[in-house]
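Input structure tokens:
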């Protein structure tokens, strides 16, 4: 079984500087691969000879940058085969680094990363099983997070119970099930709209490139992050409620895009609530929890 646990990280100013330098090196490799249409990590030794500063980044980290490009290209190809319009991969700044198998060491609440150094992490719960991968990420809200991917042996025993429930997702409330239980829509975006509007107005009045603009941009990003955190917290509690109580869960499969783009009178002005509901994310939460608990989810 695979587990993903996320923790807050608190690197020192010196370590944070090395991390930002690492992001810059990874961004350069990504841009170089896209410009030269090279999608194999076998290009890295030669690239390091030409650009010695790349040796400041752990080898597995750079390999994962190239492998991520390949993964993204495959995903675009699959969408194109389904008839979807897809563009090209864009050049972008990398805000995370992936350490796989080697280059890291976790001792208590101290995490050591090769070529970076040691930092404190808030180990809010123990890491289950054997650590396979470490992802260090910097968010627009100027916070650092470490995601630890670990594995434990064995697979969950499939349930033998017969408790079943059907769930209808709607906008009158977030969901209603066949036992009559209704979850109210949290409306996280609506609750934060006033604060967000004020923060964005203040941001628009700041001078481009100034320190005050950077500070205000972080404040806006933190409001967005708070909305996302509240949404995620609600979805975790919602999915856990059903996993703990039922063995077979029938869930409505909704196609969100046509609903948002619809011009029907009954959907006008409700696209924000539809997107805020995050029904796809809710479905994925309940599916992976069911897989870990040996329960069954059926999409209608």
């Amino acid at each position: 079984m695979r587990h993903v646990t996320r923790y807050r990280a608190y690197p020192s100013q010196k370590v944070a500087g090395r991390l930002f330098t690492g992001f810059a090196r990874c961004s350069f490799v990504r841009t170089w691969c896209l410009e030269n249409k090279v999608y194999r990590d076998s290009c890295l030794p030669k690239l390091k000879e030409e650009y010695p500063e790349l040796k400041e980044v752990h080898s597995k980290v750079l390999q994962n940058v190239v492998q991520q490009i390949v993964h993204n290209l495959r995903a675009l190809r699959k969408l194109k085969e389904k008839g979807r319009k897809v563009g090209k991969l864009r050049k972008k700044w990398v805000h995370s680094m992936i350490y796989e198998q080697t280059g890291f060491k976790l001792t208590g609440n101290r995490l050591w990363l090769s070529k970076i150094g040691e930092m404190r992490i808030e180990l809010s719960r123990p890491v289950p099983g054997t650590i396979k991968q470490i992802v260090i990420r910097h968010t627009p809200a100027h916070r650092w997070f470490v995601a630890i991917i670990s594995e434990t042996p064995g697979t969950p025993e499939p349930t033998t119970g017969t408790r079943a429930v059907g769930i209808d997702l709607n906008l009158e409330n977030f969901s209603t099930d066949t036992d009559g239980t209704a979850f109210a829509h949290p409306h996280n975006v609506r609750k934060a709209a006033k604060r967000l509007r004020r923060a964005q107005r203040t941001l628009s009045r700041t001078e481009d490139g100034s320190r005050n603009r950077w500070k205000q941009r972080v404040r806006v990003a933190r409001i967005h992050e708070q909305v996302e955190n509240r949404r995620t917290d609600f979805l975790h509690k919602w999915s856990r409620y059903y996993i703990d109580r039922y063995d077979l869960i029938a869930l409505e499969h909704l196609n969100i895009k046509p609903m948002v783009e619809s011009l029907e009178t009954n959907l006008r002005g409700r696209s924000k609530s539809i997107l805020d509901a995050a029904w796809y994310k809710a479905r994925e939460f309940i599916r992976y929890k069911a897989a870990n608990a040996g329960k069954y989810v059926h999409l209608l």
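The helical segments are 13-36, 44-50, 59-81, 188-205, 211-245, 256-261, 271-277, 279-293. The chain has a mean pLDDT of 89.
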